[in-house]
Amino acid sequence: MNKGFVLALCTVALFLGLSSTAAHAQQCTASVNCHNSCFLNYECPRPYPPCTLVCSASSQVVSCTGVSSCTTTTTSVTCDGVTKSCPTTSQCHQSLYSISCGSTTRQCTYNCPV
Length: 114
Prior knowledge:
1 helix
């Protein structure tokens, strides 16, 4: 047999073997709802005029993808030994002149937002 032909045949066989292995690899996914939605309704204090600030944040979902194992608890997910947990603090916060929910912040102003 021609050495070039044998080399080409071996290369094709190796490629097909690797492709077959990759195609058979299974993935798993785990996700958990953190049940941490929140809502704030806040009346601005003096010296600001009467103004109500409102904000809310949806519940967060934590998820992961693994190759060998995926598990969940009520507050975390673990994929291939790596754990992701739900936040332990609220998404909504109030200070003296502002509120925040998730990535949204509302501040008291002298011109109350409509």
